[in-house]
Amino acid sequence: MPTTASAPAPAFADATASDGALRRFLHGLPGVDTVGLEARAASLGTRSIKTTSKAFAIDLAISMIDLTTLEGADTPDKVRALCAKGANPDPTDRTTPRVAAICVYPDMAATAKEALAGTGIKVASVATAFPAGRAALPVKLADVRDAVAAGADEIDMVIDRGAFLSGHYLKVYEEIVAVKAECGDRARLKVIFETGELSTYDNIRRASWLGMLAGADFIKTSTGKVGVNATPSNTLLMLEAVRDFKAQTGIQIGVKPAGGIRTTKDAIKFLVLVNETVGEDWLDNHWFRFGASSLLNDLLMQRQKLSTGRYSGPDYVTVD
Fold first, then answer.
1. Is 122 a catalytic residue?
2. How confident is the model at residue 157 (pLDDT cuts 50, 70, 90)?
3. Does residue 142 have a pLDDT over 90?
4. In angstroms, rounded to a whole number, what is the distance separating the alpha carbons of residues 144 and 136?
């Protein structure tokens, strides 16, 4: 098993010693070839796979889903129903894999933990004033403490995009380090960049390295709450970053694209990106996740079509 992030990467201690040092390091990263990146993402997205491989890919994708409800109208009953669906996605076929995690707001983490007892499914909780991240650090850390105390196995935090875009990289770094400390050994940390607000691929590369340097266990594209969320291109760029980080440190970091991934075809495109960029080491839900609310339904319908030859339609699956 590759080394996982448990603290800020010691190999880059000099790079994080000061705001100036961190800025020099991040701006010293190679510039992103936009045309090349988008062309490679588009090319990999055209790959076709055979029926047996497609069946494997569908089951793998189901097992990688962070099944999510992050609405102001969430209720305990809605969360329990989502947990039941995650644990038994297709009641007519018990061979269907379970999802990786149920992702909820901190005040619903205890409800999800109780509902998922004995299933092996993780409880993921957004925190740090999700989705905007506009709160003082003590408030953000209290948010994390509450979620971990309620039983969250994973914390999905948002970075301060305003600070990042203003060039205050050390502030962002120190917040991630502080949140990681609150997680301790009880919860893995996913760091959300909100790539749609970072404007450039160079910024996404810098944010990826910043998050990894600060001790992220996962780097995550987006909250799903803005216009542009996960895309093949920004996910490919983040996969390249975790590949290069592991090559230099021996530490393996997970990747989670989130928002806008709704179909089986979409999911398979992302799995091809993973396989071709970082390889089989990441083809596991410990290292790759889909943040999604509607993707599971399409995967279930396509799975049934492969096994029965019939397309059941949307009435086959529950409405979340």
1. no
2. very high
3. yes
4. 13
